[in-house]
Amino acid sequence: MDGREYQVVVSARRKRLGLTVERDGSLLLRVPVGCETARAEGFVRQSRRWIEAKLGIQAEHRPAHPVRVFRDGEVFRYLGREYRLLVVDEGGDPVRLAAGRLRLDKRAATDPRRARREIVAWYRKSGLRWSQRRLQPWAARMEVPEPGVTVRDVGNRWGTYRPGDQGAGQMALHWAIFQLPAHLVDYVIAHELAHIRVSGHGPEYWTLLRRAIPECEARKEELDDLGRRLWLG
Ligand SMILES: [Zn+2]
Q: Could you tell me the CA-to-CA distances from 232 to 131, 143, 175, 176, 222 in Å, in that order?
């Protein structure tokens, strides 16, 4: 209908029609047994405006993670600054940030899988070094014990905090956040540190975080927005 395709599911338990927009943007129409086509069509027609609004919202929030092919001149970000990729034959580390360029060894550059692995490893190493320096002042400011920290792929979250058996637990940060400006990495760090005191995201949690970062809501919004456009390897 209207150039859109609906997957129709007939359900014995239903009395009413129901329409959902799935995560991938596909449309699912649930109908009770014995529902006539005309009734189903009428229902879809009535829901048109709702469908359009829903699809529009989804398109706006859809992740748009870029692809990298590891060619000279390609832009990589580190702590919010842009560095162009330069394929070099200098020996030493496969990836280095020097003289304003992200320098990738030409042996790694010939194999995209290896190039990806080396650059992600570089983000992990550099990000870890940076966050280790940041952790202590933030923990002191928030009056929480300093947890251990690792930088790795944390899946579809930017950070996690796991309490320890005794003392401070373990924080994990996604390597990809180190592409973001420093104030947003700080936000992720403070966000996880606040979980040492309060688990979950109830009012008590936000009160605590707001004390450390008064503009935390704005930062969260900025993170949601920029996070959708990060290179994820
Ligand atoms: Zn959280």
A: 19, 33, 9, 6, 18
Instruction: Give me ligand 1 centre to Cα 22, in Å.
Output: 25
Ligand 1 centroid distance, CA of 205 (Å): 9
Q: Is the pLDDT of residue 61 over 80?
A: no
Ligand 1 geometric centre to CA of 202 (Å): 10
Q: State in Å: Cα 177 to ligand 1 middle.
A: 15
Question: What's the Rg (C-alpha) of the chain?
Answer: 24
CA 231–ligand 1 middle distance (angstroms): 22
Residue 232, phi-psi category: left (phi > 0), alpha (psi -120 to 50), beta (remainder): alpha
pLDDT tens digit sequence for 143-181: 999 999 999 999 889 999 999 877 679 999 999 999 999
CA distances (Å), origin 145, targets 76, 109, 121: 34, 42, 28
Taken in order of first residue, the domains within the chain and their CATH numbers are: 6-61 (no CATH), 75-227 (3.30.2010.10)
Distance 122 CA to ligand 1 centre (A): 26
**What is the full DSSP assignment across 59-101?**
HHH----------TT-EEEETTEEEEEEEE---S-SEEEETTE
Q: How far is the CA of 53 from the centre of ligand 1 (A)?
A: 29
Report how far ligand 1's centroid is from the alpha carbon of 191 (Å): 6
**What global pTM score does this model have?**
0.76
